[in-house]
Structure formats: C-alpha cells, structure tokens
Amino acid sequence: MSTAAPISRTPRFRPASKSVVIKSPDNNWSSLRTFVGQLNQISRHDVVNKGVRTEVLITLLDSYIHISKPQVYSVIGISSKTANRRKDELLPRGASDATLALIEITSMAENILGSHAEAEEWLLKPALGLDGRKPIDLIATSSGAELVRDHLTRMEYGVYA
C-alpha cells in the first residue's frame, strides 16, 4: 500500500491575464500603440487567448485616414456586421491576433517612416521586398505579419527597402 501525497488540483503556473481593455477618456491611437508596445510575447499570447475587446478594433478603425474600414475588416477576418453585433464583447482568437498585429505593424511603420499618415500609405503600396504585395494584405495571417515585420526591420536598418 502506497502512502503518496494526494494530487493537487490547483495549477502551479497561472499566466498573468491581461486584456486589451482601454476605457479611459484617452481611448485613442496613442493609447493602443503604447499598450500593445508594452506587451511581451507571453502577455501578447495571453491577450490573444482571452480576446481583444471590440472597442479596441473600433479605436483602430477610427485612427485610420487612408485605410478603409472594409480593408481593416478584411485583415481582421470579421465583417462590420459581426463587429457591430459584438460591441462590448471580445473578438475571436484569430481576429484578436490580427488586430494586435495590425496595431504593432502600423506602429513600427510609423516609427520608421515618421508619421501615422506615411505608415498608412506604406501599408497600401506594393513592396518589392514583399514580392510586390501590399503589406496590409499580408497581415491577415501570422506568417504574413511576420514577413511584414521583417521587411520593416530591414527598412529600418537600410538592408533592403
């Protein structure tokens, strides 16, 4: 007969649960950019798993001048009707991931190119380093978003623009 200790049912590791909930009066592009820029990979993973609030997507949409709402919805992978129905709710995992990627990449482009407007215009232009594709069209998948991030890093260091 064994006298082993009972198995504990409580998990030993609980990741910090962060959610992209920005409800302050300064709910704007700058707030989104700052918040997402502070996420490490584990925190980003947790945010995607929990879901990004639809209001974050609305704030992102409102920040764009040159990029149309249908283009953003296409990247995110949901329709405007779904987004409107899900107000005050969480986006699905894939849409959450694409939303964060779009915020990150727009922010990177803004830092490299100097302004939000120039970043938007860059996202809409075919790039030689992306096989002639528009960066905005690649962000819909995680592998495409990684290609765009790599391309921006090369641009930043002048390796290949």
Strand and helix order: HHHHHHHHH
Main sheet record: none
Which structural class do you get from the secondary structure elements?
mainly alpha
Point out poorly predicted stretches: 5-25
What characteristic shape results from the CA principal axes?
A: globular
Distance between the termini: 70 Å
Estimated radius of gyration: 19 Å
DSSP summary, beta strand count: 0
Q: Give the domain tally.
A: 1
Approximate strand percentage: under 5%
Q: What is the tally of helical segments? A: 9
Describe it for me?
The protein is an all-alpha fold and 161 residues long. It has 9 helices and no strands. The protein has one domain. The protein is globular. It starts with 28 loop residues before the first helix and ends with a helix. The longest helix is centred in the middle third of the chain and has 21 residues, at 93-113.
Question: Can you lay out the helices and strands and say which pair or pack?
Answer:
Layout: H1 29-37, H2 41-50, H3 54-63, H4 69-76, H5 80-85, H6 93-113, H7 116-124, H8 135-138, H9 142-157
Helix pairs in contact: 1-6, 2-6, 6-7, 6-9
Protein traits:
single chain; 161 residues; mainly alpha; 9 helices; 58% helix; 0% strand; globular
What's this, in brief?
By secondary structure, the protein is mostly helical. The protein is built from nine helices and no strands. It has one domain.
